[in-house]
Each structure stands twice: as structure tokens, then as C-alpha cells.
């Protein structure tokens, strides 16, 4: 009968253990890494992203600005502290699967009522013949203790690996911030050069319009035109003068935006705007799409986040299984300091093992497990979206570079034609073969075409910066 009872008890324990270890089955998601074989007809693997930014940008003033930004930018420095936080998280996770050892020391005093079982026993207890138990009873303790959770299911080990993946992800996040910072400084710098050139053109056009106004005034004195023509030309001169202040405000704001990126208060930006027309976009080698997986920091960051999420599922799954903990302690305890270090009389030690598993009401564990699975699926979608976005960015910028090159050539010819037409219209006006409105419209069209040419040149330079960023350059 006794043997049968033990069998039943053993069977019940095994059944409960099986129920405790039973884990719900979940359907995860695997990331797809397939990308098109090429961006265009070329399959050349030469990639501009491998060029360091100091070699890619040749303007020494721009190089100096980027170098200052990489040292002082607040957003980048905030990201560096996030890396430090992630590194400390790795240290914390690493320490969790190692034994915790500590030192314990204590002193106290205890007074027990005589009319209790312990008090009655102490009253009749003699430490030595003729020497009773002290009352009240002091207590002194000095010892070492240790606790250790045996990582049977690699729960703690996987948690550490997940922390390492997140640490590496923050490193890639820093690289992504660097790439964006380099691009933002370069784009703002080229915008500043474009504004400088637009301001020069406005000043040149003001001189042309002022000369035309003087001619119209002379024509009015000769009764060849009316006061209306004079007023029209005066209004055009005033409009151009007003335009220069709009451009100056944009220059101030662009300078301050660059200063903000460099983490410094407003001050003039050193630049050589006279070289703007001479700037030629660098030749671009896009390589092949699969290189984006290695070059783009945001893709590698998403990949590491996905790996960490996969490990989180393993950690959450291990919560369903029994955990084994071991605790031990050794030291000395006595009611008199003189007896404290006497061995073995005052020596105490303990060793205990504990095996525990969740059995009833596992909703919290299940919720954590389901959430970990949902987050893993999120990271997969984010990874695939990041790859798709990278490919689209490169494809867009390659097309933009090609179209802007053709547009710039045509706009250059347009500017030459309209610039020549200003002289022609002035000559025709002097000989009364053109009216003043034709002169005004010709000057206005020439100014607009020059602005559009500068804007196109700026867009070309921005596209050069953006394709470098899209390919994953700038952080190395």
C-alpha cells in the first residue's frame, strides 16, 4: 500500500511537471533578404559608399565644417551615451548568470519572555556548569553567502546575447546618425553657396535695371515714353532690391542651421561662393543592391534588432521551464564576541537547492511570450521595409542625377540666350523698335532663368550628397 501511494505521488508530480513545462506553439516570421540584382544595366561592384567622406568632399571649408560637427554635435553625443547605456546593459546581463557572493555581518539583542517554550528552555539551560544563558541574549554574526541560478535552459545566456545584439545595434545607430549628419551639413553648405550666388545675381540685375531706368527717364524727357514706363521700371528696381533682403534672411537662417549642427552659437560660415559654378558633381558608382546590406547602417541596425528580438523569444520561452537555484552560506555566530571565532563550536554553514516551475495562473508568462513573438514579427517587417526603402532611395537619386544633368545643360543654354536678349531688347528700345514692357519682361525672364540655373546646380550637388548617403557612405 505504501509503495502504491508513492507511485501515485510520483505520477502526480510528473504530470504537474509536464503541465508546467508545456509551452504554447507560436508562428514567427522569417525575414527575406532578396533584392534586385542591379540598379540599372550595370553590374559593376565598384561602390562610392566605400570612399571616406574626406575624399568624397573636396571643398576644404566643407571638410572643416563636417569635422567640427562630428566632434560637437549634440545629437551624436546623445547617441554615444546610448551606446554606453547599452554596454552597461551587457555587463548587467553577463553578471546575472554568474554566482552572487556577498559578505554579511550583524549584531543584535534578543529578549524572550520566560513564559514561552523558548524562554522556559533558556531558563533551564546552562552554558557551563553554574553559568546560565545570558538574558537578554546578544547575537553576533560574521559570514559569507552565495546565490546562483543554474542556467539550465540558457535563459540568462540568451538574455546576455540579446543585450549584446542591442549594443551592436546602438553602434550602428551611431553610424546612421553620422551618415545623416554628414549629409545634412553638406546639403546646408551647398544651399548657402547657392544663396550667395543668387544674391550676387540680384545685385548685378539691380545694376542692369538701374541703367535701364535711367534710359527710360531720358526717353521720357524726349517725350518718347510716358510716366507710366518710368514708374514700371522704378517698381521693378524696388522689387529686386526687396528680393535681396529675402535672400539675406535665408543666408542668415542657413548659416545658423549649420552652426546648430556644429553645436555653436551663430557666427559667419567660412566659404568660397565664387567657386559654386565650378563645382562638378562627383562621379557615382552605385555598385549592386546587395551591397546595401553591408554598407547601410540602418539596415544593419534593423538586422541586429531582429536578432535580439529572436533571442527575447527564447528567453520568454524559458520562463515556462523549471529554474534551479543554489544558495549557500558559511560563517560564525555567537552571543559573545569572545566566542565568535571559535571553530567548530561557533561555525555555521548551509547549502540548499531549489527547483521551481510555474504551474497555475501562467498568464503573465504567456503574455510576455506572446509579446516577444509579436515584437519579433515587427522587427522582421521593419527590416524588410528598411531594405526596400534603401533600394528606392538609391534608385530615385540615380534617376535624379541623370535628369538633372540634362536639365542643367538646357538651362545653361537658356541663360545664355536670355542674357543676350537683355542687350538686344535695350538696343531695340533705344531705336524705338521695342516697347518698355518687352525690356521689363526680358530682364525678369533672365533673372528667373539664372535663379533656376543656380537652383538646378544646387539640386545636382544635393543629389551627389544624397546618393552618397543612400548608398551608406559617410560613417566610415
From TrEMBL:
The keyword Transferase is assigned to this record: no
Membrane topology, record value: Lipid-anchor
Gene3D superfamilies, sorted: Outer membrane efflux proteins (OEP) (2.20.200.10)
Subcellular localization, as worded in the UniProt entry: Cell membrane
Keywords assigned: Coiled coil, Lipoprotein, Membrane, Palmitate, Transmembrane, Transmembrane beta strand
Major localization listed first in the record, in broad terms: membrane
Ranges in coiled-coil conformation: 66-93, 192-221
Matches recorded under SUPFAM superfamilies: Outer membrane efflux proteins (OEP)
PANTHER family: OUTER MEMBRANE CATION EFFLUX PROTEIN, OUTER MEMBRANE PROTEIN-RELATED
Family: Belongs to the outer membrane factor (OMF) (TC 1.B.17) family.
Identification of the protein by name: TolC family protein
Amino acid at each position: 500500500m505504501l509503495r502504491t501511494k508513492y507511485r501515485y505521488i510520483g505520477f502526480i508530480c510528473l504530470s504537474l511537471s509536464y503541465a508546467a513545462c508545456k509551452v504554447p506553439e507560436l508562428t514567427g516570421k522569417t525575414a527575406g533578404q532578396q533584392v534586385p540584382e542591379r540598379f540599372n544595366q550595370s553590374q559593376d561592384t565598384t561602390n562610392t559608399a566605400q570612399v571616406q567622406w574626406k575624399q568624397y568632399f573636396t571643398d576644404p571649408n566643407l571638410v572643416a565644417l563636417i569635422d567640427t560637427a562630428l566632434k560637437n554635435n549634440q545629437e551624436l553625443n546623445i547617441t554615444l551615451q546610448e551606446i554606453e547605456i547599452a554596454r552597461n546593459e551587457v555587463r548587467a546581463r553577463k553578471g546575472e548568470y554568474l554566482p552572487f557572493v556577498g559578505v554579511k555581518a550583524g549584531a543584535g539583542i534578543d529578549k524572550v519572555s520566560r513564559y514561552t517554550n523558548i524562554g522556559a528552555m533558556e531558563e533551564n539551560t546552562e552554558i557551563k556548569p553554574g553559568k546560565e544563558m545570558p538574558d537578554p541574549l546578544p547575537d553576533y554574526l560574521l559570514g559569507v553567502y552565495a546565490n546562483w541560478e543554474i542556467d539550465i535552459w540558457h535563459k540568462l545566456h540568451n538574455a546576455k546575447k540579446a543585450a549584446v545584439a542591442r549594443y551592436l545595434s546602438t553602434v550602428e545607430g551611431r553610424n546612421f546618425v553620422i551618415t545623416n549628419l554628414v549629409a545634412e551639413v553638406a546639403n546646408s553648405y551647398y544651399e548657402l553657396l547657392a544663396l550667395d550666388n543668387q544674391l550676387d545675381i540680384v545685385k548685378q540685375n539691380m545694376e542692369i535695371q538701374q541703367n535701364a531706368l535711367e534710359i527710360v527717364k531720358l526717353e521720357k524727357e524726349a517725350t518718347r515714353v510716358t510716366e507710366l514706363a518710368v514708374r514700371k521700371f522704378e517698381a521693378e528696381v524696388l522689387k529686386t532690391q526687396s528680393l535681396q533682403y529675402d535672400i539675406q534672411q535665408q543666408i542668415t537662417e542657413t548659416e545658423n542651421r549649420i552652426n546648430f549642427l556644429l553645436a555653436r552659437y551663430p557666427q559667419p560660415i567660412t566659404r568660397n561662393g565664387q567657386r559654386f559654378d565650378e563645382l562638378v558633381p562627383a562621379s557615382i558608382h552605385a555598385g549592386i543592391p546587395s551591397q546595401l546590406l553591408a554598407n547601410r547602417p540602418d539596415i544593419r541596425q534593423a538586422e541586429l534588432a531582429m536578432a535580439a528580438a529572436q533571442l527575447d523569444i527564447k528567453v520568454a520561452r524559458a520562463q515556462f521551464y523549471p529554474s534551479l537555484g543554489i544558495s549557500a552560506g558559511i560563517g560564525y555566530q555567537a552571543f559573545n564576541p569572545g566566542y565568535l571565532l571559535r571553530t567548530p563550536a561557533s561555525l555555521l554553514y548551509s547549502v540548499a537547492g531549489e527547483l521551481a516551475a510555474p504551474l497555475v495562473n501562467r498568464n503573465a508568462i504567456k503574455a510576455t511570450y506572446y509579446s516577444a513573438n509579436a515584437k519579433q514579427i515587427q522587427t522582421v517587417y521593419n527590416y524588410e521595409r528598411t531594405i526596400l526603402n534603401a533600394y528606392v532611395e538609391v534608385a530615385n537619386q540615380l534617376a535624379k542625377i541623370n535628369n538633372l544633368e540634362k536639365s542643367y545643360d538646357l538651362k545653361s543654354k537658356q541663360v545664355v540666350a536670355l542674357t543676350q536678349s537683355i542687350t538686344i531688347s535695350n538696343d531695340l528700345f533705344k531705336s524705338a523698335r521695342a516697347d518698355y514692357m518687352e525690356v521689363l519682361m526680358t530682364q525678369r525672364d533672365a533673372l528667373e532663368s539664372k535663379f533656376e540655373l543656380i537652383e538646378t546646380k544646387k539640386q545636382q550637388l544635393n543629389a551627389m550628397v544624397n546618393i552618397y548617403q543612400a548608398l551608406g557612405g559617410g560613417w566610415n
